[in-house]
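Example 3.2
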Amino acid sequence: MKYVSINAHTIRHNATHGTDDPPIRVARSANDTKPVYARELKIVGPARLVYDPQKIIMRCGARLVLECTDVEITR
């Protein structure tokens, strides 16, 4: 299972400082300490979008994630 979330801090930083850091975070588990960041990805196979306002789903603090079986990442 892969977990995809968007890093809003990176988007704000890019807008403020004119940088182009990739904001899409792809993790192998909800507690992944070494996620991959991307600018674009293709979802392969079934996927499910999950939002839980009552609890943090991933270690990074995300409450909205896309759960999917695999992705093709463009960095």
